[in-house]
Structure formats: structure tokens, C-alpha cells
Amino acid sequence: MPSDRFRPPITLARALSKLGAASRSQARLIIEAGRVAVAGRVVRDPDLWIDPSRTAITLDGKAVRRAPFVYFLLHKPPGFVTTRSDERGRRTVYDLLPAGAPRVFPVGRLDLETSGLLILTNDTQFGERATHPSSHVEKAYRVEVDREPRAEEISALEAPMVLADGTRLLPGKVTCDRRRPTQFELCIFEGKNRQIRRACAHIGLHVVRLHRLRVGKLSLGALPEGACRELGPAEAARALA
Predict the structure, then answer these.
(1) N or C, which end of the chain has less CB nearby within 10 Å?
(2) All domains of the chain in start order, with CATH
(3) Which pTM value belongs to this model?
(4) Which residues are part of the catalytic machinery?
């Protein structure tokens, strides 16, 4: 569940990221530029181990304090990338957040053409719990492929899989739709890069459409495509319970 506690010690760069002051990569540059002080002393080592709950950190002379936790539930449309900026000028999911939204990160990613439920938050412990396989948080997708899968192909998706590049995937859970033979629901408990598309390609299926339905107990409900709503901390906590 959401928590404001650190697990010290952590590096200074990670502390700045967890406090919402900058991304991890930006934090390293800020620290190396001499803009950060720890206990009143300028530090240029991003990998300095500290306990942020006991140590004062300042950025450009101002105290760095954790921003209140926020959680956004977004209905991502196809054609948006799950990054803060894009070198190719494509639209990003951050274009869909309310004006003035605090710095948040996506809890797992959806690729360019995948639609559906995406959570964005500044609560790193929530994000880690939602995405780590050991938490066993279910992610449910509606998958449409180019032909009706055979029984052995469904079985392959429900078994451990090793892709051609050596990537190991945990078993999934498939629910078929007899009314729509080229569609099925696939539940997974991890979130590796383009996992479902790669798993389907490995057994000879081409994904035509991919839509995330649920994460844990959270679903989109009637939220329109392209819209988002803010979750309260209690609702976010219940989603992963």
C-alpha cells in the first residue's frame, strides 16, 4: 500500500527522484552540477548513500521535501507513447494529464499502439509493488490476433515460456471468447517490454489490437478514452490489496 517511508540508506540521486524533485537521470546531472547540498554541504556524488528521513537535502538553496502522493488513472488511446518527451515529436501520455499535475511516472508501460488502463503516480513504493512479479498483481489484457488460436497455442501462453532471445516469461492465464474466436483475455503477473506481443509472435500469432483492462482491482469503468481521473490513496491501496 502507499507509504511515505524510505528504506534507507539510498543513493542521493534516488532520494531526489523519490522526493519528486527530478527523474533519476536528471538528478544525477543536477547533483554533478553542484546544485545539491546534504546537511549544508554541497555534494557532487549522485551515488552517496544517505537516509533522507534524517538528512536535510537542499536544491539550489531550497529544502527538498516530498510532494503529497498522487495517483492518476488514465485511459490511454493508441498513438501515445508512455514517456515524458519524445525525440520524434509523438504525443505522450503526459499530454493527457491535467494542467499543473505534479511530476509522476507510469506504473508499467503501454507501447505506442496499446490502449487501456495506465496508472501514473509519484509513489515509488506503490509503483514497485504494482509491477514486481513477487507481488503477484494481475494485469488483464484483451488481445485480438490475426486468426483463431489453436488449443496448443493457448496452452503455450499459460505455461512458462522462453523467447528466442532467452527472455523468460511467467505463465499467463487465458480466457477465450467463443463469440469472438480471434479475441481472448490474457492475465499476466509481470510486465516485460512488449511481453504479450512478443509471446504471441513466438508461437506464430500476430497481435492486431491490445488493450489493458485491469491492474489489480482497478478497471477503467466508464472512463472515456483519453480521459483520466485522480485516485485517492485509499482507493489506490485497495487496488493492490
Answers:
(1) C
(2) 10-63 (3.10.290.10), 71-132+218-239 (3.30.70.580), 138-215 (3.30.70.1560)
(3) 0.80
(4) 111
